[in-house]
Amino acid sequence: MSDVFFTDMNVDRSQNLLKKLEKLIDKAGLGTIDFEDKFVAIKIHFGEPGNMAYIRPNYARVVVDYIKERGGKPFLTDCNTLYPGKRRNAIDHLYAAWENGFTETTVGCPVIIADGLKGTDEEFIKINKELVEDAKIGKAIADADIIVSITHFKGHESTGFGGTLKNIGMGSGSYSGKMEQHQEGKPVVIESECIGCKACIQECAHGAITIVNGKARIDLKKCVGCGRCVGRCIRAAIDVPDYSHNDDLCKKIAEYTYATLLNKPNFHISLAMDISPYCDCYSKNHPAILPNVGFFASFDPVAIDVAAADMCNKQHAMKGSKLDGLEHGHEHEHDHFHLLHPSTNWEVQVEHAEKIGLGSTKYKLIEVK
Protein backbone atom coordinates (compact mmCIF):
# COMPACT_ATOMS: atom_id res chain seq x y z
CA MET A 1 0.00 0.00 0.00
CA SER A 2 1.47 3.34 -1.08
CA ASP A 3 1.10 6.73 0.56
CA VAL A 4 -0.74 9.36 -1.45
CA PHE A 5 -0.82 12.85 0.04
CA PHE A 6 -3.77 15.12 -0.67
CA THR A 7 -4.85 18.67 -0.03
CA ASP A 8 -8.11 20.29 -1.05
CA MET A 9 -8.39 23.73 -2.64
CA ASN A 10 -9.82 25.60 0.32
CA VAL A 11 -7.62 28.43 1.58
CA ASP A 12 -7.58 30.87 4.49
CA ARG A 13 -5.86 34.15 5.28
CA SER A 14 -2.54 32.45 6.01
CA GLN A 15 -2.19 30.55 2.76
CA ASN A 16 -2.97 30.42 -0.94
CA LEU A 17 -3.01 27.53 -3.42
CA LEU A 18 0.67 27.92 -4.27
CA LYS A 19 1.63 27.67 -0.61
CA LYS A 20 -0.67 24.67 -0.20
CA LEU A 21 1.06 22.93 -3.10
CA GLU A 22 4.50 23.64 -1.63
CA LYS A 23 3.42 22.27 1.74
CA LEU A 24 1.93 19.19 0.09
CA ILE A 25 5.06 18.22 -1.86
CA ASP A 26 7.20 18.81 1.20
CA LYS A 27 5.02 16.62 3.43
CA ALA A 28 4.90 13.97 0.70
CA GLY A 29 8.70 13.73 0.80
CA LEU A 30 9.96 15.41 -2.36
CA GLY A 31 12.76 16.92 -0.29
CA THR A 32 14.12 13.47 0.60
CA ILE A 33 15.44 13.06 -2.95
CA ASP A 34 19.10 14.03 -3.39
CA PHE A 35 18.85 16.81 -5.99
CA GLU A 36 22.37 18.22 -5.58
CA ASP A 37 23.81 18.87 -9.08
CA LYS A 38 21.27 16.48 -10.63
CA PHE A 39 19.41 17.10 -13.89
CA VAL A 40 15.70 16.98 -13.07
CA ALA A 41 13.17 16.51 -15.86
CA ILE A 42 9.84 18.01 -14.80
CA LYS A 43 7.39 16.29 -17.16
CA ILE A 44 4.43 18.52 -17.86
CA HIS A 45 1.90 19.21 -20.65
CA PHE A 46 2.15 22.82 -21.84
CA GLY A 47 -1.39 22.78 -23.27
CA GLU A 48 -2.37 23.30 -26.90
CA PRO A 49 -2.91 27.05 -27.44
CA GLY A 50 -6.63 27.79 -27.35
CA ASN A 51 -7.20 25.21 -24.62
CA MET A 52 -7.55 26.94 -21.24
CA ALA A 53 -7.74 23.90 -18.95
CA TYR A 54 -3.99 23.23 -18.79
CA ILE A 55 -1.96 23.68 -15.61
CA ARG A 56 -0.98 27.28 -14.95
CA PRO A 57 2.79 27.92 -14.98
CA ASN A 58 2.54 29.31 -11.42
CA TYR A 59 2.19 25.76 -10.09
CA ALA A 60 5.23 24.60 -12.05
CA ARG A 61 7.23 27.50 -10.55
CA VAL A 62 6.54 26.19 -7.04
CA VAL A 63 8.09 22.83 -7.92
CA VAL A 64 11.00 24.39 -9.83
CA ASP A 65 11.92 26.67 -6.92
CA TYR A 66 11.66 23.80 -4.44
CA ILE A 67 14.12 21.72 -6.47
CA LYS A 68 16.53 24.61 -7.13
CA GLU A 69 16.65 25.42 -3.43
CA ARG A 70 17.97 21.87 -2.91
CA GLY A 71 20.70 22.16 -5.51
CA GLY A 72 18.93 20.56 -8.45
CA LYS A 73 19.02 21.58 -12.12
CA PRO A 74 15.38 21.37 -13.19
CA PHE A 75 13.92 21.85 -16.65
CA LEU A 76 10.32 21.68 -17.85
CA THR A 77 9.85 19.23 -20.66
CA ASP A 78 7.50 17.39 -23.00
CA CYS A 79 7.84 15.59 -26.33
CA ASN A 80 6.39 16.54 -29.70
CA THR A 81 2.96 15.34 -30.85
CA LEU A 82 1.76 13.09 -33.67
CA TYR A 83 -1.08 15.34 -34.79
CA PRO A 84 -1.34 18.81 -36.34
CA GLY A 85 -1.17 21.76 -34.04
CA LYS A 86 1.40 23.98 -32.42
CA ARG A 87 3.37 21.25 -30.66
CA ARG A 88 4.42 18.95 -33.54
CA ASN A 89 8.02 20.23 -33.76
CA ALA A 90 10.29 21.83 -31.21
CA ILE A 91 10.12 25.37 -32.64
CA ASP A 92 6.33 25.56 -32.68
CA HIS A 93 6.18 23.63 -29.40
CA LEU A 94 8.34 26.21 -27.66
CA TYR A 95 6.23 29.04 -29.05
CA ALA A 96 3.13 27.23 -27.76
CA ALA A 97 4.68 26.84 -24.33
CA TRP A 98 5.60 30.52 -24.26
CA GLU A 99 2.13 31.52 -25.45
CA ASN A 100 0.67 29.65 -22.49
CA GLY A 101 3.05 31.32 -20.06
CA PHE A 102 5.84 28.75 -19.72
CA THR A 103 8.95 30.88 -20.15
CA GLU A 104 12.23 30.81 -18.28
CA THR A 105 11.23 34.06 -16.60
CA THR A 106 7.88 32.79 -15.34
CA VAL A 107 8.83 29.25 -14.33
CA GLY A 108 12.44 29.89 -13.28
CA CYS A 109 14.11 27.22 -15.43
CA PRO A 110 14.67 26.27 -19.09
CA VAL A 111 11.96 24.69 -21.21
CA ILE A 112 13.36 21.80 -23.28
CA ILE A 113 11.51 19.74 -25.89
CA ALA A 114 12.81 16.30 -25.03
CA ASP A 115 12.76 14.61 -28.45
CA GLY A 116 14.32 17.46 -30.37
CA LEU A 117 13.47 19.48 -33.43
CA LYS A 118 11.44 16.88 -35.35
CA GLY A 119 10.67 14.32 -32.65
CA THR A 120 13.53 12.03 -33.64
CA ASP A 121 15.94 12.57 -30.72
CA GLU A 122 15.25 9.41 -28.76
CA GLU A 123 16.75 6.79 -26.50
CA PHE A 124 15.85 3.12 -26.89
CA ILE A 125 15.23 1.65 -23.44
CA LYS A 126 14.94 -2.13 -23.35
CA ILE A 127 12.22 -3.39 -21.03
CA ASN A 128 10.97 -6.62 -22.70
CA LYS A 129 7.42 -6.29 -21.38
CA GLU A 130 4.19 -7.76 -22.73
CA LEU A 131 3.71 -5.32 -25.63
CA VAL A 132 6.87 -3.22 -25.70
CA GLU A 133 10.43 -4.51 -26.03
CA ASP A 134 12.31 -1.26 -26.60
CA ALA A 135 10.59 1.97 -25.58
CA LYS A 136 11.50 5.05 -27.60
CA ILE A 137 11.88 7.86 -25.04
CA GLY A 138 12.70 11.50 -25.71
CA LYS A 139 16.46 11.93 -25.26
CA ALA A 140 16.40 14.79 -22.76
CA ILE A 141 14.01 12.86 -20.50
CA ALA A 142 16.07 9.68 -20.87
CA ASP A 143 19.25 11.60 -20.01
CA ALA A 144 17.78 13.19 -16.86
CA ASP A 145 18.89 11.90 -13.45
CA ILE A 146 15.50 12.40 -11.78
CA ILE A 147 11.91 12.52 -13.07
CA VAL A 148 9.23 14.69 -11.46
CA SER A 149 5.81 14.78 -13.11
CA ILE A 150 3.15 17.46 -12.81
CA THR A 151 -0.14 16.27 -14.27
CA HIS A 152 -3.48 17.88 -15.02
CA PHE A 153 -5.99 15.15 -14.12
CA LYS A 154 -8.86 15.08 -16.63
CA GLY A 155 -10.99 12.89 -18.87
CA HIS A 156 -9.55 11.26 -21.97
CA GLU A 157 -11.27 9.83 -25.01
CA SER A 158 -8.93 6.82 -25.39
CA THR A 159 -7.90 5.98 -21.84
CA GLY A 160 -10.88 7.13 -19.74
CA PHE A 161 -8.82 9.68 -17.89
CA GLY A 162 -5.50 11.36 -18.48
CA GLY A 163 -3.45 11.06 -15.31
CA THR A 164 0.13 10.57 -14.23
CA LEU A 165 0.69 7.39 -16.26
CA LYS A 166 -0.67 9.03 -19.41
CA ASN A 167 1.39 12.17 -18.85
CA ILE A 168 4.61 10.20 -18.45
CA GLY A 169 4.07 7.19 -20.71
CA MET A 170 2.59 8.81 -23.80
CA GLY A 171 4.13 12.20 -23.14
CA SER A 172 7.71 10.92 -22.84
CA GLY A 173 7.51 8.89 -26.04
CA SER A 174 9.32 10.27 -29.06
CA TYR A 175 7.48 10.56 -32.37
CA SER A 176 8.11 6.87 -33.12
CA GLY A 177 7.32 5.99 -29.50
CA LYS A 178 3.90 7.61 -29.77
CA MET A 179 3.29 5.79 -33.05
CA GLU A 180 4.15 2.49 -31.40
CA GLN A 181 1.67 3.13 -28.61
CA HIS A 182 -1.15 4.18 -30.94
CA GLN A 183 -0.67 1.90 -33.93
CA GLU A 184 -3.01 -1.00 -33.03
CA GLY A 185 -6.34 0.85 -33.06
CA LYS A 186 -7.41 2.04 -36.53
CA PRO A 187 -10.66 4.00 -36.96
CA VAL A 188 -13.30 3.50 -39.66
CA VAL A 189 -15.89 5.83 -41.20
CA ILE A 190 -19.61 5.24 -40.66
CA GLU A 191 -20.68 6.46 -44.08
CA SER A 192 -24.36 6.87 -43.18
CA GLU A 193 -23.34 9.55 -40.65
CA CYS A 194 -20.58 11.27 -42.61
CA ILE A 195 -21.46 14.59 -44.27
CA GLY A 196 -18.06 15.13 -45.90
CA CYS A 197 -17.27 18.29 -43.92
CA LYS A 198 -13.49 17.60 -44.08
CA ALA A 199 -12.91 18.42 -40.41
CA CYS A 200 -11.20 15.04 -39.98
CA ILE A 201 -8.81 15.83 -42.84
CA GLN A 202 -7.65 18.96 -41.02
CA GLU A 203 -7.02 16.89 -37.91
CA CYS A 204 -4.96 14.13 -39.61
CA ALA A 205 -1.21 14.72 -39.66
CA HIS A 206 -0.46 11.73 -41.89
CA GLY A 207 -2.56 12.36 -45.00
CA ALA A 208 -4.59 9.24 -44.27
CA ILE A 209 -8.03 10.75 -44.90
CA THR A 210 -9.56 11.81 -48.20
CA ILE A 211 -13.08 12.56 -49.41
CA VAL A 212 -14.47 10.08 -51.94
CA ASN A 213 -17.99 10.57 -53.31
CA GLY A 214 -18.75 13.04 -50.55
CA LYS A 215 -17.67 10.71 -47.72
CA ALA A 216 -14.47 10.50 -45.69
CA ARG A 217 -12.23 7.53 -46.40
CA ILE A 218 -9.31 6.43 -44.21
CA ASP A 219 -6.20 4.80 -45.70
CA LEU A 220 -5.30 2.33 -42.95
CA LYS A 221 -1.77 1.97 -44.33
CA LYS A 222 -1.09 5.63 -43.59
CA CYS A 223 -3.16 5.82 -40.38
CA VAL A 224 -1.17 5.52 -37.14
CA GLY A 225 -4.25 5.12 -34.96
CA CYS A 226 -3.82 8.30 -32.91
CA GLY A 227 -7.61 8.76 -32.77
CA ARG A 228 -7.65 12.52 -33.30
CA CYS A 229 -10.21 12.20 -36.10
CA VAL A 230 -12.55 10.31 -33.76
CA GLY A 231 -12.62 13.19 -31.32
CA ARG A 232 -12.86 15.81 -34.06
CA CYS A 233 -15.90 14.46 -35.90
CA ILE A 234 -18.99 16.43 -34.91
CA ARG A 235 -21.28 13.69 -36.27
CA ALA A 236 -19.63 10.75 -34.47
CA ALA A 237 -19.13 9.31 -37.96
CA ILE A 238 -15.67 7.94 -37.17
CA ASP A 239 -15.21 5.18 -34.65
CA VAL A 240 -12.79 2.42 -33.65
CA PRO A 241 -14.65 -0.87 -34.18
CA ASP A 242 -12.42 -2.97 -31.94
CA TYR A 243 -12.29 -1.32 -28.53
CA SER A 244 -9.83 -3.92 -27.25
CA HIS A 245 -7.21 -1.72 -28.88
CA ASN A 246 -7.88 0.88 -26.19
CA ASP A 247 -6.82 -1.76 -23.66
CA ASP A 248 -3.57 -2.33 -25.58
CA LEU A 249 -3.01 1.43 -25.62
CA CYS A 250 -3.46 1.57 -21.85
CA LYS A 251 -0.97 -1.27 -21.38
CA LYS A 252 1.59 0.34 -23.66
CA ILE A 253 1.27 3.63 -21.77
CA ALA A 254 2.01 1.76 -18.54
CA GLU A 255 5.03 0.06 -20.13
CA TYR A 256 6.35 3.35 -21.51
CA THR A 257 5.98 4.87 -18.05
CA TYR A 258 7.97 1.93 -16.67
CA ALA A 259 10.73 2.61 -19.21
CA THR A 260 10.80 6.35 -18.49
CA LEU A 261 11.16 5.88 -14.72
CA LEU A 262 13.45 2.84 -14.84
CA ASN A 263 16.29 3.10 -12.29
CA LYS A 264 15.59 6.78 -11.57
CA PRO A 265 14.30 8.55 -8.47
CA ASN A 266 10.84 9.85 -9.34
CA PHE A 267 8.01 11.81 -7.75
CA HIS A 268 4.54 12.71 -8.96
CA ILE A 269 2.06 15.56 -8.55
CA SER A 270 -1.49 15.52 -9.90
CA LEU A 271 -3.80 18.53 -9.96
CA ALA A 272 -7.48 17.52 -10.15
CA MET A 273 -8.87 20.90 -11.12
CA ASP A 274 -10.56 22.28 -14.24
CA ILE A 275 -11.39 18.63 -14.93
CA SER A 276 -12.17 18.76 -18.62
CA PRO A 277 -13.77 15.83 -20.48
CA TYR A 278 -11.01 15.58 -23.08
CA CYS A 279 -7.24 15.82 -23.37
CA ASP A 280 -5.41 19.16 -23.17
CA CYS A 281 -4.07 18.39 -26.67
CA TYR A 282 -7.17 19.91 -28.26
CA SER A 283 -7.05 23.61 -29.08
CA LYS A 284 -10.23 24.18 -27.08
CA ASN A 285 -11.83 22.82 -23.95
CA HIS A 286 -15.33 22.08 -22.75
CA PRO A 287 -16.61 23.14 -19.31
CA ALA A 288 -15.32 21.13 -16.36
CA ILE A 289 -17.24 17.91 -15.79
CA LEU A 290 -16.62 17.86 -12.01
CA PRO A 291 -15.90 20.38 -9.25
CA ASN A 292 -12.27 21.08 -8.41
CA VAL A 293 -11.06 18.27 -6.16
CA GLY A 294 -7.54 19.16 -5.05
CA PHE A 295 -3.85 18.32 -5.31
CA PHE A 296 -2.23 14.89 -4.95
CA ALA A 297 1.43 13.91 -4.46
CA SER A 298 3.15 10.54 -4.22
CA PHE A 299 6.23 8.54 -5.09
CA ASP A 300 3.89 5.97 -6.65
CA PRO A 301 2.60 6.85 -10.17
CA VAL A 302 -0.04 4.10 -10.03
CA ALA A 303 -1.46 4.88 -6.61
CA ILE A 304 -1.75 8.60 -7.36
CA ASP A 305 -3.86 7.88 -10.46
CA VAL A 306 -6.17 5.52 -8.57
CA ALA A 307 -6.53 7.98 -5.68
CA ALA A 308 -7.38 10.85 -8.01
CA ALA A 309 -9.90 8.72 -9.92
CA ASP A 310 -11.53 7.53 -6.70
CA MET A 311 -11.82 11.06 -5.37
CA CYS A 312 -13.26 12.32 -8.67
CA ASN A 313 -15.80 9.50 -8.75
CA LYS A 314 -17.13 10.67 -5.38
CA GLN A 315 -18.12 14.02 -6.91
CA HIS A 316 -21.33 14.91 -8.73
CA ALA A 317 -21.36 16.06 -12.33
CA MET A 318 -21.28 19.77 -13.02
CA LYS A 319 -24.55 21.07 -14.41
CA GLY A 320 -24.38 21.71 -18.13
CA SER A 321 -21.19 19.69 -18.61
CA LYS A 322 -20.64 16.71 -20.92
CA LEU A 323 -21.16 14.47 -17.89
CA ASP A 324 -24.42 16.06 -16.78
CA GLY A 325 -27.37 13.69 -17.12
CA LEU A 326 -25.26 10.56 -17.66
CA GLU A 327 -25.01 9.52 -14.01
CA HIS A 328 -28.36 7.99 -13.21
CA GLY A 329 -29.71 4.59 -14.14
CA HIS A 330 -26.50 3.39 -15.78
CA GLU A 331 -24.53 0.32 -14.75
CA HIS A 332 -21.40 2.45 -14.45
CA GLU A 333 -23.10 5.45 -12.83
CA HIS A 334 -20.36 5.74 -10.18
CA ASP A 335 -17.54 5.77 -12.72
CA HIS A 336 -17.62 9.17 -14.37
CA PHE A 337 -14.82 8.38 -16.79
CA HIS A 338 -16.47 5.25 -18.14
CA LEU A 339 -19.77 7.08 -18.47
CA LEU A 340 -18.08 9.82 -20.44
CA HIS A 341 -16.03 7.47 -22.63
CA PRO A 342 -17.82 4.08 -22.71
CA SER A 343 -15.27 2.45 -25.01
CA THR A 344 -12.49 2.92 -22.47
CA ASN A 345 -11.46 1.05 -19.34
CA TRP A 346 -9.00 2.99 -17.24
CA GLU A 347 -8.60 0.11 -14.79
CA VAL A 348 -6.62 -1.77 -17.45
CA GLN A 349 -3.91 0.88 -17.31
CA VAL A 350 -3.42 0.89 -13.54
CA GLU A 351 -3.81 -2.87 -13.17
CA HIS A 352 -1.21 -3.54 -15.87
CA ALA A 353 1.11 -0.95 -14.32
CA GLU A 354 0.80 -2.78 -11.00
CA LYS A 355 1.41 -6.13 -12.71
CA ILE A 356 4.72 -4.99 -14.22
CA GLY A 357 5.94 -3.61 -10.91
CA LEU A 358 5.44 0.10 -11.49
CA GLY A 359 3.40 0.71 -8.33
CA SER A 360 0.36 -0.30 -6.34
CA THR A 361 -3.36 0.19 -6.91
CA LYS A 362 -3.77 0.14 -3.12
CA TYR A 363 -3.04 3.35 -1.29
CA LYS A 364 -3.34 5.22 1.98
CA LEU A 365 -4.66 8.76 1.56
CA ILE A 366 -2.96 11.24 3.89
CA GLU A 367 -4.60 14.65 4.06
CA VAL A 368 -2.46 17.76 4.40
CA LYS A 369 -4.20 20.86 5.74
Provide an overview of this structure.
The chain is of the alpha/beta class and 369 residues long. The chain has 2 domains: 2-183 and 242-367, Rossmann fold (3-Layer(aba) Sandwich), CATH 3.40.50.11440; 188-239, Alpha-Beta Plaits, CATH 3.30.70. It is 30% helix and 20% strand. It has helices at residues 17-27, 57-68, 90-99, 104-107, 139-143, 164-169, 175-182, 199-203, 228-232, 244-261, 301-312, 336-340, 346-355; strands spanning 2-7, 39-43, 73-78, 111-113, 122-126, 134-138, 146-152, 154-156, 160-162, 188-189, 209-212, 215-218, 238-239, 266-272, 294-298, 363-367. The strands form 5 sheets. The protein has an 8-stranded mixed beta sheet, sandwiched between helices. Strands 5-6 form a two-stranded antiparallel ribbon. The chain has a two-stranded antiparallel ribbon with strand order 8-9. The longest helix is centred in the C-terminal third of the chain and has 18 residues, at 244-261.
